[in-house]
Amino acid sequence: MRVPYTWLLEYLKTEIPAEELAEVLTMGGLEVEEVEEWTSADGEATDQVLLTSVTSNRGDLLSMVGVARHAAALLDCEFEMPDYHIPAIENPNRADADLTQGDSRITIEDHEGCPRYSALRLVGVEVRESPQWMRHRLEAAGVRPINNVVDATNYVLWELGQPLHAFDHKLLVDGHIIVRRAEPGEKLVTIDGVTRELTRDDLVIADPKGPVALAGVMGGTDTEMRDRTKNVLLESAHFNPTMIRRTAQRLGLSTEASYRFERHVDPNLTLPGMARAAKLIEQMAGGDVAGPAMDVRREEFAPRSIEMRPARTNYVLGTELPTDEQVELLERIEFEVKREKLEQPEGLEQAWLRPVPESAQAAERLTVRVPTSRPDIEREIDLIEEIAIIHGYNNIPTTLPVNTSGAGTRTRLQKLEQRASEVMRAAGLCENISYSMMGSRDLDFLCIPEDARERETLCLRDPAAENQELMRTTLLPGLLSAAQRNVHQRVEDVALFEIGRVFIDRGELQLPAEEKRLSAITLGSARTSTWNLPDQYEKMDFFWLKGVIEQLLERLHIKDASFERAEHPSMHPGRTARIIVDGEAVGYIGEAAPDVQKTYDLPEPAVLVEIDFDTLLDHAHLLAQYEPQPRMPAAIRDVALVVNDDEKHTAARLVNVAEQHGGEFLQEVRVFDVYTDAERLGENRKSVAMRLTFRHPERTLRDEEVDEAVNRITNQLRRKLGAEVRTW
Amino acid sequence: MENRLRDMAEAARKALREATSLDELEEARIKYLGRSGLLREIQQGIRDIAEELRPQVGRMINETRNELERLLEKRREALEAGRVHERAGTDRIDVTLPGRAQRVAGRHPLLATLDDMLEIFLGLGYTIAEGPEVETYYYGFEALNYPADHPAMDEQMTFYVTDDMLLRSQTSTVQIRVMERTKPPVRVVVPGRCFRRDTLDATHSHTFHQLEGLCVDEGITFADLKGTLLAFARGMFGEEAQVRFRPDFFPFTEPSAEFAVTCFVCSGEGCRVCSGTGWIELGGAGMVDPNVLEGVGYDTERYTGFAFGVGIERFAMNRYGIPDMRLLYSGDMRLLRQF
Ligand SMILES: [Zn+2]
After folding, report:
1. Which has the closest alpha carbon to B291: B241, B262, B240, B254?
2. What is the pLDDT of residues A559-584, one digit of tens each?
3. Candidates 3.10.310.70, 3.10.20.600, 3.40.50.1370, 3.30.930.10; CATH matching B109-336
């Protein structure tokens, strides 16, 4: 809200400069974002304007008087209300909520929506431009001056916080105001010229012919003030915050009035607001108040009484504020306090309460009467907060909690996740963070079939942008887009991984499954430079990234891991593997499928990994157990096998056969060379060289023992896989 | 005889010292120290001198031999080193060519910032918890004491999936989940992603990260909240850092506060980073509202607690001088390789 400084000082007996006042208010819970130097459009007035940002619980600070009252409490100085005189009032508290007075009548049909409707009739006004002082004030507050009557209502809205509306009395059918719900389909042209279609949820001010105003939001054109208006019906009402909010939201129409009603206006402000406006209108537009004011309501709006224990204040705040001081602080914000000594300290004898110093007078109770301008104060804790604010947060001591609940540690899963990130980074992959939203377009780009789990998506009702309507079910779109952006920036080497959540829909009745994925993409080289290096050392190809994943599995102390040829819709059909850990599939690694590569405009095949991270960690171990280093020397034999170059004769298969038949001393089988050469080996044949390592735990193996084992292995390879064996 | 020995030694020293190649050195060795060299010859002449002088001369001969052998060894080393040096003319590499190592990547600046924050709270005895990013209305608002249909909810700019399902707009939702499954004392920090319908620009993002803290026990006070956040600020910015609290409003805390730390760039003088105020706002905090504690079944008379939330993006941007929040989500290798 714009708070002109000189206007504010009318109610505040202080000479504090605007900048200092801004600081005091900010530290007292009313944030002043800026102090603006203001000059009027005609250049004849200047002021400083405090731009305040009011928290949604403090509707009472949305007026000059509200700000002044709060500032007075913070500064501990005098505060003065503006001048008005409440006229005679006709018949308050009528159970039938219907009141006729002279040529005017008010009927409240919806009491939930409108607990109070006050009105006053002014006759013989002369509508014209407001005097300069009024125009300047409104201009400084950011309100466009209209005419003296409307300006008076806006002035009071700003000054007291009570929204008002001035009707041309002559244009109200029968001078009859009816507060009711709108009928479905009813229409109203509001003063901004827009035709509004109304629903049962909207509260309207109507006359017998139809709606004349959107209650608490905006008036209608049919009954608004004109230049020739002579008689005015001045409305000063109290409306239900929630109903006003719903209407304002539904119509996308936030006005100064609706903004205040949503944040609760003091129901006892209708009469002062009306009286103050009447006084200003009489002053600027002439005319007379005609007859008593009307005030239609069914109940009193009495101040709330709350009990509080001064000792509790100190228990919650960690202060040692004596009761005297607490009372004084509450009285400064115009709360009435009644003190009461208790025979028996109430609730305070419990062992867990911190020993309360004598000064806190534990055995006292306060009864606090809270003005109706503060509906946010309902409980003891609310009063404690008020005391803290007026006392000043920065005057509260600074301590650390006394009790300790033990050491803080990361959980097993948190440690494993940290380790996984470390391994990936040590391999040269950078950590990526991408947005959690994606579009169904991204799944199309990845060629994900309609029945895949990735299509079980959660759809946002109000997405932030196009192609961001779904929660991601895979991390690959984020990584591929990042790779694409890098390529467009001419970055040739891309190595990125992300550990993040995906969201799998489980229907409306259940929250989605939030699963962690570890995914990666590589493109180009992993090295700082590659001069003179042959291609296979230069590029992060399938086997490079596979090696990284193997390292990851090793560092997570996963013993039983294997890779088998598999298919993945986004990956190259011949160059993709499923990653299997302890017999359970945990993810895929493969070159990007040619279509995917093309869609993302990548210069060469990228290698992709996507791992179900939660499942992977199920199989991981934080700690490894020590295995003694072998004392005996190993016997090593190299074997070269020539086999068909096809899916039946994979390296894993050859190793597997060797391991099965190598006997108890075979320790390791490792492929160290693979080549094809049609001339030497024949068409579709390949040579695979393996190193066999044998070891006995206690003694040196004899040559005959080793030879026998090697023969067993080669015989089986010959028999089962048709291998031609060449030994060195 | 002694004179002969002295003259021979002098000549030998000169020859050894002045040998310019290993071959010359070998020649000198044979001449003086060889099997039939001059020293040997002198040694054999010992028979011809008086018996009582023999031990003394013998000692002199030995000393001379030792000395010459040391000299020979030293010279040989020097000549050999010289020979290697000569080879450098033909056998050398261009040491200015770039290295060819496997790259190593650093932590993402956002996560490095978070790590440092977590370190501090682990040190203060907190554990780390996580919670769902997609939440029910109950955990998102109701359990956090948001009044139904209140303007406070507008500020959250929440993404909805259905009326009852939403993306959490703050990590505070996890407070409830943690307290539901834990009896006090509770001391936990919760890092995580949050979402708000904010437009993407240099300082706003619809996806961002927060660190939430929650401490509930007997006798936890607002003063303890201040002390904890002071410890946090000093852990992040150094022992000189000060914190400042001003009242704010959050439905789930009472009293509520906004907290700021003295600007680490200008130490409070006022600069561009702190918009001239000398303070950098870090987040919101407050004493857990009794309604929230009651909602999870805690005895609100007995237990009090505080909670706080810190945005991580702003923090990381200030710390590394990153001007645009979107860079943190860009996956730009040129950015990520810097940290
Ligand atoms: Zn600064």
Report:
1. B254
2. 999 999 999 999 999 999 999 999 99
3. 3.30.930.10
